[in-house]
Specification:
Length: 200
């Protein structure tokens, strides 16, 4: 059963890699970092909206989203470095699959970009709750993770497993932020105060 799933994962990777020809590599390079660029835009927009409206709630929401991602990445780093490399990197699977973007030959499971997407979505769902923004973020996340498979740096299973694993992890981190109120009471006011000194 597990061997069949791994074979399916490998064959899907090989098929997905053939969907993009080398002349479109630049577009794939942009697409597979799209969710990170989108996250930066969301945070800047939320923060500036707080400045414009003189409402610190927007700044707190931005910080809660940032810290959801940071805390989830801390857990990811511990898990990712603790898991030994248990199968070939996607780049090593077949000589015909040349990665479009340079990527280290590391343990590709679980996907860090799937984590980033899940943590951003959970942060938006828990703290900002804007349905249109959540939908756009979901679409951008799907484009990003699909591009990473087509670029040959992740197995589809890295994305699917990583996304669901980190969805739970990010939810728990967001819940921790929300329930403890430690960051909201002691950490976020420091960031907001420092930013106010430069009129942000």
């Amino acid at each position: 059963m597990i061997q069949n799933l791994l074979s399916l994962d490998t064959s899907t990777l090989i098929w997905a890699r053939t969907l993009i020809s080398p002349e479109y590599a630049r577009y794939v390079q942009i697409a597979w970092e799209l969710v990170v660029l989108w996250w930066a835009l969301i945070l800047v927009w939320l923060w500036l909206r707080g400045v414009q409206k003189k409402d610190d709630r927007y700044k707190v929401w931005a910080l809660e989203i940032v810290f959801t991602i940071i805390l989830t990445f801390l857990v990811y780093s511990i898990i990712n470095f603790g898991i030994p490399k248990w199968r070939p990197s996607p780049q090593e699977i077949a000589g015909s699959i040349a990665p479009l973007i340079p990527h280290p030959l590391d343990n590709s499971f679980p996907s860090g970009h799937a984590l980033f997407s899940a943590a951003l979505l959970i942060g938006l769902i828990r703290f900002y709750k804007n349905k249109l923004l959540i939908l756009i973020t979901l679409l951008i996340a799907l484009i990003t993770v699909s591009a990473r498979v087509m670029g040959g740096v992740h197995y589809p299973g890295d994305i699917i497993g990583g996304f669901f694993f980190w969805w739970i992890g990010a939810y728990l981190m967001a819940l921790l932020l929300e329930k403890t109120q430690f960051f909201r009471r002691y950490i976020f006011p420091i960031f907001i105060k420092v930013a106010s000194w430069i009129r942000l």
